[in-house]
Amino acid sequence: MQTAPPFDRLSGILERFRLRARLHHAGALCGLHHFDAGEGHGYLHVLRRGQLAVSHPGAREVTQALHFEQPTLLLYPRPFTHHFHNPPDEGADFTCARLDFEGGAEHPLARALPPLIALPLARVEGLGLALELLFAETDRPRCGHRLLVDRIFEVVVIQLLRWLLDHPQEAGVRPGFVTGMAHPGLARALIAMHDAPGEGWTLARLAACAGMSRTAFAVTFRDVVGQTPADYLSDWRVALAQTRLRAGQPVKAMAEELGYAHPSALSRAFGARVGMSPRQWLAQVSAGDAPR
User: Fold this and answer.
1) pLDDT tens digit sequence for 229-244
2) CA distance 198 to 207
3) Paired sense of beta strands 42-49 and 72-76, if any
4) 3-class state of residue 132 by DSSP
5) Helix, strand counts (H, E) of the chain
């Protein structure tokens, strides 16, 4: 009996919306350290040894004060102000990276995740080898060290994302892309939309991808993802349009590939989702005022 081939839930997203990591710090941190959302970066902090108190001034979405005493991974996928309070003398041992998800807060993964994910290192299967190499490179810098460390950090993030797709409830992920990708049937429909956004995706075709009836698919999709398949597809197409606009591609060159008969139809869909025309949005992004 032939088994169904495995399907990849991450590559399509990360190929279209890149992830970049840059080494920020390696070694002891003593005293108070600020990480300001205004800098525009997400962060991945790996607490190797020691104790750490973290505060989130004025935050409503996360606990304002947390304390960690075991090796822990802290992921801030979007810019989010946080302060580290380390012992003033012995400090704590960290390896940290700045993260930039292409599209910023509108990156499908960055948007779907909670502001903070904090997990003991031992909880995430598969991290051991990558962390061992990461620590070896940060402990003893050699030729190409920074470039290699940046790539290893990206591997660590991808491994974490893999784990999150299988454990969304444990990580406190709200309904959306990640919870949809954790559902075997919905994941196949989501991947189909991601891989071919310009296809004429009807409810019947998507339900067939998921191996479900149309009614069961529509109800399950709404419950698990938090929106209708049509709304999700429209959001995905607009997100792709934003990426291409930033890259300099005109609306008329992308409309048909994204499933719109005319550039004006894409512009209308864009305006309905974003609240402004593609031209206006791009002008504000270029000026640094619009969501990225």
Assistant:
1) 999 999 999 988 988 8
2) 17
3) antiparallel
4) helix
5) 12, 9
For the record, the structure tokens of 33 come out as 């350290």
Q: pLDDT digits over 78-92, tens only?
A: 899 999 987 666 668
Could you tell me which of 59, 42, 53 has the C-alpha nearest to residue 96?
42
Residue 60 φ/ψ region, left for φ over 0, alpha for ψ in the -120 to 50 degree band, beta for the rest: alpha
Topology of the domain covering 183-287: Arc Repressor Mutant, subunit A (1.10.10)
Query: Considering the domain 11-166, what is its CATH architecture?
Result: Sandwich (2.60)
What is the reported pTM? 0.80
Q: Give residue 88's pLDDT.
A: 63
Q: Quick one: angle between helices 214-225 and 184-195, nearest 10? A: 90
Domain layout of the chain by residue ranges? 11-166, 183-287
Q: What is the pLDDT of residues 32-42, one digit of tens each?
A: 788 998 888 99
Say which DSSP state 258 is in. Answer: G
pLDDT at site 175: 84
Contact 55, 64 (CB under 8 A): yes
Query: DSSP H helical segments within 182-250, as ranges?
Result: 184-195, 203-210, 214-225, 229-246
Edge to edge, the sheet with strand 65-68 lists 31-35, 82-86, 52-55, 65-68
Please tell me the least confidently modeled range out of 39-53, 171-185, 218-232.
171-185
